[in-house]
Specification:
By secondary structure, the chain is α/β, with parallel strands linked by helices. It is built from 7 helices and 11 strands. It has a 6-stranded parallel beta sheet with strand order 2-1-3-4-5-11, sandwiched between helices. A 5-stranded mixed beta sheet has the order 7-8-6-9-10, with helices on one face. The longest helix has 16 residues. The chain starts with a strand and ends in a 7-residue tail after the last helix.
Amino acid sequence: MKIAIAGYGKMGRMIHSLINEGGDAEVVSIIDPYSRCEEVTARQLTKESIANADAVIDFSNAQAVMENIKVYAHCSAAAVIGTTGWLEHLDEAEKIISGTDARILYSGNFSLGVTLFLMLVQKAAELIGNIPSYDVAISEIHHNEKTDSPSGTAMMAAEKVLSCLKRKSEIITGNSDGKIKDNQLQITSMRVGRVPGVHTLTIDGPADTITIQHSARSREGFAAGALQAAFWLVRQNAGLYSMDDFASSLTGGNANA
């Protein structure tokens, strides 16, 4: 499969390196308006710069995503978007690709381990739904160069909790100013050093504490998951897909294999 990489930062370079190690994919273009790496083949994402690609893997930046989606819609492209910080525009993105042959899969994290973590978070929220003595919170730690806070993965975990735990209906981020309300789910973030990513769901009751945690050892898991997602996406019908759709194919769901 021929791959175009949009955004040649840390993740873009990791995906390029992974593909170069061998397999069934090859990189045919690398698009980045800022990078001075000699591997970059185009400065702008256009119909021409992705013309030879079967799929685009997009780790650009939040400000560029919506314009990129317009290009994907115009070209009927298959695009895996791992960029975070833009999901408040998801409804607009769906309207842009509606009626086109574009296939877009978005996620704040393509690690297969994170996929399992999110499934466990959802199941845990379901299990404590009728046990009001247990409270929940989410925390995340990342390297000090990460630009968005909280992380996309933390927000996905929070949405999983809210979808199953009816006594939580509002997300608050950062340090609270005094006592939080019973319906609030808090997400706290720490930025330090070179941590690839640690996400934790804490379930606390009067007598004990339960934690569910995912700790990334490197970005390789994120890159491998994004590449696997691209192979999956090119076999799907037109539309907007989430990580849940992709995950169902990994765990025996009804999505196309």
